[in-house]
Amino acid sequence: MLAIAGGKGGCGKTTTTLGLAAALDGATAVVDADTDMPNLHALAGVPRDAPSDRRGHPHPDDESVTVYPAPPTGDEGREARSRDAEARLRRLRDVPTEATLLDCPAGAGPDAAAPLREADAALVVTPPCAPALRDTVKTVAMADALGTRVVGAVLVRSRVVPSGVESLLGCSVLGTVPPADPPVLDADAVRRAYRNVAEKLQASKEL
């Protein structure tokens, strides 16, 4: 399992999750691990209600991608919800796929820690602006504290890697994704960017 993580909401995690899923070879599962503000199902164009924990929806534009929306939340507290989320991710490990990508919550609380703890590795996503980069540094630190290796970063809404970014994040930037008008994933340049990142991940055996 590869966690797609970032410091703030709106930093490009969900777009990157789906962009990478479309670019990877073989069957891929994408899992919404954000129970507070789930939007993977909306961006993918599938219903919010999943058939079950272990059955998702086929992506309407790519039959090799299966989408697992976040389950509805109940009245349980945050810690109980985090435990439930971790148990769900463990169940999804048995789903036969070439790769499983987790669309993680933003922030540094228990909800954000749960998928990072269950993941085998993490890929951080951020635009190149200073506030977002500072929050992403916190995400990298949280992954390190949980023992989850950060395999690299993706810079979104950018065509270049600013000087010092890799040193700040403590990991390599695997690619940049240029700005594009919505629907972002329909842009050829964006698709090429995610293909380049996917090729690097697969070549390095990080999936």
Automatic annotation (TrEMBL):
Q: Where does the record place a coiled coil?
A: none
GO BP annotations, alphabetical order: negative regulation of cell division
Ranges for the region named Disordered are 41-84
* One GO MF term attached to the UniProt entry: ATP binding
Residue ranges under compositional bias (Basic and acidic residues)? 50-62, 75-84
Query: Which InterPro entries does this chain map to?
Result: CobQ/CobB/MinD/ParA_Nub-bd_dom, P-loop_NTPase, ParA/MinD_ATPase
Cross-referenced Gene3D superfamilies, in alphabetical order? P-loop containing nucleotide triphosphate hydrolases
The record places domain CobQ/CobB/MinD/ParA nucleotide binding at 2-158
| Gene Ontology CC terms, in alphabetical order | cytoplasmic side of plasma membrane; cytosol
Highest taxon listed in the record's lineage: Archaea
Give UniProt keywords alphabetically.
ATP-binding, Nucleotide-binding
Q: Which PANTHER family match?
A: SEPTUM SITE-DETERMINING PROTEIN MIND HOMOLOG, CHLOROPLASTIC, SEPTUM SITE-DETERMINING PROTEIN MIND HOMOLOG, CHLOROPLASTIC-RELATED
What name has this protein been given in UniProt? Septum site-determining protein MinD
